[in-house]
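Q: What residues go here?
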């Protein structure tokens, strides 16, 4: 999703908001209690396809930001630590502890520590976060990258940061492979950085793809921006905005080489914005703003071909002029087990699309609606949770949004051979499904003698207790009377006590 470069005469809509009365616009930070979880299974009326698999979406907690703070994107710790990392623009990096009933802010990396460069995106490799620095809505900030050590997220430390000179535009995304970071530097193209020493980032090379493709007659440099990327085996898959998709071989770090390119010819006379992508084997799932998502085969990177096109808003028609589109897909994530793609989609908030058959993308569900004046920019996926990030857009370009913050969305990720999201404890205990969507939950284990199962609510009150002389495999626990919310499950055996979290979201 792009708020500037497809509209030459408009300024940064986020910056414009700062000119509006802060008294009128300010709002206090609110943490919505998890017991307020309610079912939101909304399918936009523009989508007629029926998903071949069931994807249920339920609202969890939410955190509202105070104006002018923005939530650009949010990502859960990939190592299983119960923390959320939020790129919060002028508010820097915010780290939330999710282990309690409601999230708590435990650490901030302020922009004052990184030359006042805004934090626009965040990725993770190992115990390190890689921050995309520099406001990409503006021509007054630098492309930059920062590294943050989150071995202990509550005491996260900045190890180093790097910025490109001069200050012309910020960074869309950073991805890491091995000892190198690859930064999508918007109009500055692709940067390759040596990060082998986390305390000393070194510039290696810069590559700016040709802007004469796909419009050789009158390319507008403002619309060609390196925004999202994926990297695998020394090949970078780059979303180049109006420039389509570019494949860049980076085996020689000093001399990157473009080996393939693609742009949908149907859009030759229309604005185009290839915003972000994810790579799955030889397929790319690409978010293309008001044009939905393309599935591309990159088996032969020199001959990229379209496998399918999920185009719910019919962007190629005169009725859709980008500004009035019901949706603007931007950040994208893929669940390999369930074969579902999740996309932030502007005022449509979030869409889930099944790609079980990549040739026939199937609309599964959407979260939110087009009339509630709330619009997303970013999205993060972790197990059975989707974290959507909302931005404040007072002038409505390309959509109006009067709320910024983060929301947790819980989804039913029951798939064949799927175990993620369950309560796992020593010696093979497994609670399924989690979140609990019906009146009973199954406790899977081998036969165990003399075990006690207890459940506690967020106030620490015991709400379930049952003793089993012998716990048979697949024992069902009747918890249909519990209200929606977060609970602690305690399993007590003779030789151990194990605990875990359970979400009830019927």
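A:
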């Amino acid at each position: 999703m792009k708020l500037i470069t497809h509209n030459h005469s408009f300024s940064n809509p986020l910056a414009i908001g700062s000119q509006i009365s802060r008294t009128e616009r300010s709002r206090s930070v609110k943490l919505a209690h998890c017991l307020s979880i309610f079912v939101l299974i909304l399918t936009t009326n523009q989508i007629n396809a029926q998903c071949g698999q069931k994807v249920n979406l339920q609202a969890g907690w939410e955190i509202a930001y105070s104006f002018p703070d923005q939530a650009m994107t949010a990502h859960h710790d990939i190592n299983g630590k119960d923390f959320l990392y939020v790129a919060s623009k002028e508010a820097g990096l915010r780290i939330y502890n999710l282990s309690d009933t409601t999230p708590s802010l435990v650490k901030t990396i302020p922009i004052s520590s990184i030359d006042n460069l805004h934090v626009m995106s965040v990725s993770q490799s190992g115990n390190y976060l890689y921050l995309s620095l520099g406001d990409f809505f503006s021509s007054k900030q630098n492309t930059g990258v920062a590294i943050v050590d989150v071995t202990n997220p509550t005491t996260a430390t900045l190890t180093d940061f790097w910025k490109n000179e001069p200050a012309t535009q910020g960074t869309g995304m950073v991805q890491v492979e091995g000892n190198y970071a690859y930064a999508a530097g918007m109009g500055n193209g692709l940067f390759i950085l040596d990060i082998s020493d986390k305390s000393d980032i070194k510039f290696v090379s810069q590559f700016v793809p040709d802007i004469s493709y796909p419009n050789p007659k009158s390319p507008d440099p403002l619309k060609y921006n390196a925004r999202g990327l994926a990297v695998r085996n020394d090949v970078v898959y780059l979303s180049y905005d109006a420039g389509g998709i570019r494949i860049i071989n980076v085996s020689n770090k000093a001399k990157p080489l473009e080996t393939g390119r693609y742009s949908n010819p149907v859009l030759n006379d229309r604005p185009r914005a290839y915003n972000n992508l994810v790579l799955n084997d030889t397929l790319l799932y690409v978010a293309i703003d008001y044009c939905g998502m393309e599935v591309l085969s990159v088996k032969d990177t020199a001959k990229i071909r379209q496998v399918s096109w999920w185009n719910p808003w019919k962007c190629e028609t005169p009725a859709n002029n980008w500004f009035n589109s019901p949706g603007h897909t931007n950040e994208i994530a893929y669940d390999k087990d369930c074969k579902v793609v999740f996309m932030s989609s502007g005022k449509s908030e979030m869409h889930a699309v099944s790609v079980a058959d990549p040739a026939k993308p199937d609309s599964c569900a959407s979260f939110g609606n087009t009339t509630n004046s709330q619009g997303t920019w970013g999205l993060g996926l972790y197990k059975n949770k989707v974290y959507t990030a909302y931005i404040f857009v007072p002038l409505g370009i390309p959509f109006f949004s009067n709320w910024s913050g983060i929301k947790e969305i819980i989804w039913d990720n029951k798939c064949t051979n799927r175990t993620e999201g369950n309560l796992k404890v020593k010696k093979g205990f497994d609670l399924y499904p989690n979140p609990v969507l019906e009146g009973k939950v199954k406790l899977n284990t081998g036969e165990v003698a003399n075990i006690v199962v207890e459940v506690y609510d967020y106030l620490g009150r015991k709400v379930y207790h049952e003793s089993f002389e012998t716990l048979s495999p697949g024992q069902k626990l009747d918890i249909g009377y519990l209200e929606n919310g977060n609970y602690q499950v305690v399993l007590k055996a003779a030789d151990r006590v194990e605990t875990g979290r359970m979400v009830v979201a019927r």
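A: Context that may help when evaluating the design: The first helix runs from residue 13 to 16. The helical segments are 13-16, 22-25.
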